[in-house]
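Feature request, filed as a ticket because there's no other form

It would be nice if the structure record came with a short human-readable summary line next to the tokens. Right now we just get the raw output. Example of a typical job, pasted below so the devs can see what we mean:
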Amino acid sequence: MARPNPTGHQHGAGSINALASFVTYVKALESLDKNRFPDEYATYRDRIKQLKPFLRAHGILDVMAIKNPEVAALIGA
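Raw output as currently delivered:
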């Protein structure tokens, strides 16, 4: 059994990029008023949903708790 590599280099940059993108989009979503900026809100929401397969494939959702209930619902966490 392979030991985990905390730097992420063994598994490539995909998981690091997916996680960084996820955090960026969640923070952007949380800072927007969905009533004032519905198009931007929808864009961030869609991008978060698109990242779900990457987050699951790299096991990120197995070790990370999603605090925002709306975001948790988007990705089925």
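Something like this underneath would help us a lot:
The chain has one domain: 14-75.
Residues 14-75 form one domain.
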